Amino acid sequence: MIGELARPVKYLTGVGPKRSELYERMDVHTVYDLLYHFPRYYIDMNEPQTIRDAPLNETVVLKGRIVRKLPEAPIRRGLSVYKAVFTDDTADLTIVIYNAGFVFKSLEVGHEYYLVGKLSGNMIRREISSPQIYPVRDTDPVQPVYRLTEGLTQKQLRMNMHSALEALDGFVYEPLPADVMRENGLCSLSYAMQNVHFPVDMHTLELAKNRLVFDELLTLAMGMLMMKSRSREKAGCVMKNESVDEYYEALPFELTKGQRNAIEDCIKDMQQEHPMNRLIQGDVGSGKTAVAAGAAYFAYKNGFQTALMAPTEILAGQHYETLNAFLEPLGVKVVLLTGSLTQKKKEKVKEGIAAGEYAVVVGTHALVQKSTEFDRLGLVITDEQHRFGVEQRAMLAGKGDNPHKLVMSATPIPRTLALMIYGDLDISVLKELPKGRQPVETYAVTGKLRERAFGFVKQHLDEGRQGYIVCPMIEESDSDLQDVKSYAKQLSEGFFKDYRVGLLHGKLAPDKKEKVMKKFKEHEIDLLVSTTVVEVGVDVPNAAIMLIENADRFGLSQLHQLRGRVGRGQYKSSCILVTDNPTDEVVQRLKILSKCHDGFEISQEDLKLRGPGDFFGSRQHGLPKLKIADMSQDMDVLVRAQGTAKEILSRDPELAAGENSGLKELVERLFEQNVSND
Ligand code: ADP
Ligand code: MG
Fold first, then answer.
1. Ligand 1 pocket, 537 CB below 6 A?
2. Is the model's pLDDT at 180 over the cut of 80?
């Protein structure tokens, strides 16, 4: 479809083998790639400032004419200074050019030019040194500025881009169906391309961007939906409307409104003929487990089993305890199935599951091993879904008779992203925290105050509380592990030698991990030095203080998750973020956490500051890199694109129709590039 555009850039006029190597370095291989190498920003010549009012020492755009050229002034051998007087009728200034005689010679007195550069001097005598100079007569009024590589200049790239645009003009290439363009008020692709690179003014740029952002988000939405629909089952296990009032009454607390609504959502979903596909999104401590238990109880009342999967043994164990506490009094049998059970025990549990003896099965992914047979699996709940591998999810989905699915996430993914990642998942949000929770007081300090911070931790331990010290293990490498170990040793033999210090990291064998965690829960350990394995869900109400080392290395959302480990009981809790890298940016970022305790807000900030690519620390969410859309900004377009994608796919699920072939190609491109990037 894209025919000629698929040709290597070197066939463009003005691009030879040598320059095409430079393009290769920027991942630009074809003419098509070049067209999608969008400007980083633009210099708008349409609204030049006046020399009189232009600020000093900032990049400004001026428009005026050369009044007079001064004689060349050699400074020393090989270095000349050229000067010219320039006016825009509000004031004059002196252009200063070092050495570039050819630039100077090309300037003509009386002609109009744009200057881009920084003014220096004072109100009376203004100078601009080595500005970019463009003759007004043959200059695009808005200049694109591109990401470059060494050896390539803006001017060259702009010229090549003009050639690429000519190639695009040479034949009609329009991937969007006409009705989609009409309904969304979009300009044509060739207009968009022309104007994203060389807009006449900011308005045409806007039009162009709208179109390209829409394309990108539509493509993304479509790809995600297509992946999903391929695994979408038809009928599920339809349930009847049974009351769960006993559950509400048996709970030791009153559910929040959000929790109640979420359970009602699930109950409604599970009565539909399509399986439920719902995400419960709730900040740390918002009480997602109680929602899960409610849904499980509803399945139980309908005679179905529920499986709950957690990413770690620790969490599985904890969920088991919670669910058991909530459900056992109601006569529901809950069982824990993890990899660390003895072979014999495992066999026995599995027999019980197959016989339908247990209504709720909690476990790690060992649970999904082929050998586990359920009697009547009706509901599958996963905690922290994005931590699971894709295969594991798929395998679980294949169990039973198309069970209903409930996903719990404590990562408060901004809705924009959730829509993308989870596609057609329905979402219930737990907005408020249970009553009586106090926010975790959060301080950011530099390494200089480390000793004092340790003292503060000690104070808590002396009051009978427990604490965490978290250090990042960025690489998961042996040397990082060594660092963590020796750090823990230092603490336990030094500052905290009078306390019981434990160490927890991801490289410990599961049963060892379990042991450490159990000791911490039972207060046989006062201070737990840990990597981020404590990040999710671990619940020790007596823990009231957390210190996080190298806090600058974490994303805000992750820090927020981490601090959610404290403040879970009745004690006032604190979190100290330590950084040895207190740049303005870092300090500003960490300060957000002192002020803000809402996970959703924090995740929005994170998204703004770090971009969606970084959002989960890595690209586990499987989203391709975007070139022009910004998911933290382009929410409206995303929602529209999502709607359009659904519409198109409902008519043509595989994009087989001729009018959709352009779209199909876009989807394939985006996801192909994603795979090769990983
Ligand atoms: P998360 O959403 O982080 O998984 P949990 O489900 O672990 O949160 O709940 C955190 C704690 O709050 C648990 O001890 C749980 O029993 C308690 N909890 C849950 N809901 C409520 C509520 N409505 N009122 C009081 N406490 C609650
Ligand atoms: Mg949880």
1. yes
2. yes
Distance between Cα 260 and ligand 2 center (Å): 17
Per-residue pLDDT at 623: 64
What CA dihedral angle connects 620, 622, 628 and 632, to 10 degrees? -60
Q: Is the pLDDT of residue 456 over 70?
A: yes
> Ligand 1 atom closest to Cα of 288?
2
Place of tokens 């998750």: 561
Q: How far apart are CA 602 and CA 596, in angstroms?
A: 7
Tell me how far the alpha carbon of residue 564 lies from the centroid of ligand 1, in angstroms: 12
Q: What single-letter DSSP state applies at residue 329?
A: G
Residue 281 Cβ < 6 Å to ligand 1: no
Tokens matching residue 535: 């990040």
Bridge partners of 41?
145
Residue 227 has pLDDT above 90, yes or no: no
Domains and CATH numbers, the chain: 47-140 (2.40.50.140), 245-272+287-409 (3.40.50.300), 441-596 (3.40.50.300)
Q: String of b and e for 280-300 (b: at least 16 CB within 10 Å)?
A: bbbbbbbbbbbbbbbbbbbbb
pLDDT given at position 462: 96
* Centre of ligand 2 from the C-alpha of residue 240, in Å: 28
Cα of 319 vs centre of ligand 2, distance in Å, is: 8
Does the pLDDT at position 626 exceed 60? yes
User: Atom 18 (ligand 1): residue with closest C-alpha?
Assistant: 287
Report the share of the chain in percent with pLDDT over 90.
50
Alpha helices in 398-506 (DSSP H): 415-422, 450-462, 478-493
Q: Average pLDDT over the chain, rounded to whole?
A: 85
End-to-end CA separation in angstroms for the chain: 26
CA dist list (Å): 173 to 614, 661, 666 = 34, 11, 12
pLDDT the model gives residue 675: 43
Look at 81-90, 481-490, 633-642 and tell me which has the smallest mean pLDDT.
633-642
Q: Encoding tokens for residue 233?
A: 């089952």
Which residue's CA is the closest to the ligand 1 atom numbered 16?
Answer: 287
Whole-number Å distance, alpha carbon 539 to ligand 1 midpoint, is: 9
pLDDT recorded at residue 189:
93
Q: What is the pLDDT of residue 395?
A: 53
Q: Which residues, 6 or more positions from 575, have their beta carbon under 8 angstroms from its beta carbon? A: 440, 441, 442, 443, 545, 546, 547, 548, 562, 563, 566, 593
Report which protein residue has its CA nearest ligand 1's atom 20.
287
Rounded to whole angstroms, the Cα distance separating 127 from 118 reads 8
